[in-house]
């Protein structure tokens, strides 16, 4: 039907305009779609969504989301990637892909807390056996593996208390018994810890962090190398109806090109700031994987090729929570809030769960810092003026 035979109304809906071919620019195109159009009945009937080599429905991907998936898989050294609406949603996909009623999963005590919360839910309402392990257990994890253990979660370094686990030892023990190891590799952004190279089967990224890089969106990714694991991850992703916004995907693609440069700057500045804090009498421990105080530092030295900008400190035990709260509120450049990986430095106080048996530093206040892209000299000046409120 050409323009002359169509009514004005139909012409408004079905445009005949075809832009000239040959447009070329660096930014990837942003495709918005629920419906994907098939040209033939045969194409519609033979559609296949897992393989990423055709398009079937907006939820299963567009050129925009496929581009980001390929980029994230490439950074991590994997072959397959699915995107999720948050880092936590990516974690959920892994649990749903590999666990069922009657199965057992091992989760480290220092895991990102919502992952633990999800574990508690699986245990309470879904008949999954969930056990928590000391992240520094190393090869001893072999003794925890039961006949029904299907999945071991690991996070390196762990959230808040920053212990660095021996992932190769976990993977060796797990693989001898056919157990899958999923690594939350968010801290390293896939840049300075080669999770697959150290044995991981599945890698999760909170793309919200360094990949998004601007504290403005939420996204997650599940990456794998293995075809069969990828199939299960894709089935869970599809069944849960997980999709991401094309505009958010574009923002991540836009940030991704500068991610390594931002990560390195954040990591370098974190070393400068943490080194300064280490000299201060108010601080008793630097829980930064690159510092000897941090449990698992030797493993960090062995397995990592660089550092990110997220770390914690313990205050001297003479300081009360009320005092360190005052310190936090006195900070001006460091803003207080959750998440990290953006351009701005952040601080958060944490109370370590009372039921965490492996934590014996309860007399010390713990504060986590994220170092952004400000001049570290200004960040140090800010810390110095805020520390002066302590005494
Ligand atoms: C932030 C974070 C997540 C969750 O990411 P969201 O996008 O906030 O859901 C998961 N794991 C780690 C280690 C994180 O830091």
Automatic annotation (TrEMBL):
Its EC number is 4.4.1.8. It catalyses: L,L-cystathionine + H2O = L-homocysteine + pyruvate + NH4(+). Keywords: Lyase, Pyridoxal phosphate. Belongs to the trans-sulfuration enzymes family. It comes from Oxalobacter formigenes OXCC13. The modification N6-(pyridoxal phosphate)lysine is found at residue 209. GO terms for molecular function: cysteine-S-conjugate beta-lyase activity; pyridoxal phosphate binding. NCBIfam families: cysta_beta_ly_B, PRK07050.1. This is Cystathionine beta-lyase. The keyword Acyltransferase does not apply. GO terms for biological process: L-cysteine catabolic process to pyruvate; transsulfuration. Its cofactor is pyridoxal 5'-phosphate.
């Amino acid at each position: 039907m050409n323009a002359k035979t169509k009514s004005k109304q139909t012409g408004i809906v079905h445009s005949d305009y075809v832009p000239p071919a040959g447009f070329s620019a660096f930014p990837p195109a942003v495709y918005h779609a629920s419906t994907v159009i098939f040209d033939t009945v045969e194409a519609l009937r033979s559609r296949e969504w897992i393989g990423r080599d055709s398009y079937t429905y907006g939820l299963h991907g567009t050129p925009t989301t496929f581009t980001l998936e390929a980029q994230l898989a490439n950074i991590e050294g994997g072959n397959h990637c699915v995107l999720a609406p948050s880092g936590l949603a990516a974690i959920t996909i892994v649990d749903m892909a590999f666990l069922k009623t009657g199965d057992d999963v091992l989760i480290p005590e220092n895991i990102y807390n919502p992952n633990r919360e999800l574990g508690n839910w699986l245990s309470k309402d879904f008949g999954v056996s969930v056990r928590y392990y000391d992240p520094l257990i190393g090869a001893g994890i072999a003794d925890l593996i039961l006949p029904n253990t299907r999945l071991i979660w690991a996070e390196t370094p762990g959230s808040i208390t920053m212990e660095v686990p021996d992932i190769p030892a976990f993977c060796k023990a797990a693989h001898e018994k056919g157990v899958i190891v999923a690594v939350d590799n968010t801290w390293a952004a896939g840049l300075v810890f080669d999770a697959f190279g150290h044995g991981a089967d599945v890698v999760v990224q909170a793309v919200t962090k360094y990949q998004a890089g601007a504290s403005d969106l939420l996204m997650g990714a599940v990456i794998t190398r293995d075809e069969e694991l990828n199939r299960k991850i894709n089935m869970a992703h599809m069944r849960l109806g997980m999709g991401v916004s094309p505009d958010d995907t574009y923002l991540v693609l836009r940030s991704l090109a500068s991610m390594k440069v931002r990560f390195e700057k954040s990591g370098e500045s974190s070393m400068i700031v943490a080194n300064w804090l280490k000299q201060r009498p108010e601080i008793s421990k630097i829980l930064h994987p690159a510092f000897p105080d941090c449990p698992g530092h030797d493993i960090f030295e062995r397995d990592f090729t660089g550092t990110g900008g997220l770390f914690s400190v313990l205050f001297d035990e003479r300081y009360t929570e009320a005092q360190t709260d005052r310190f936090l509120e006195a900070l001006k450049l460091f803003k207080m809030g959750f998440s990290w990986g953006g351009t701005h430095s952040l601080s958060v106080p944490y109370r370590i769960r009372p039921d965490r048996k492996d934590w014996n530093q309860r007399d010390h206040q713990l504060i986590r810092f994220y170092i952004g892209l400000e001049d570290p000299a200004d960040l140090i000046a800010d810390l110095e003026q805020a520390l002066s409120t302590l005494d």
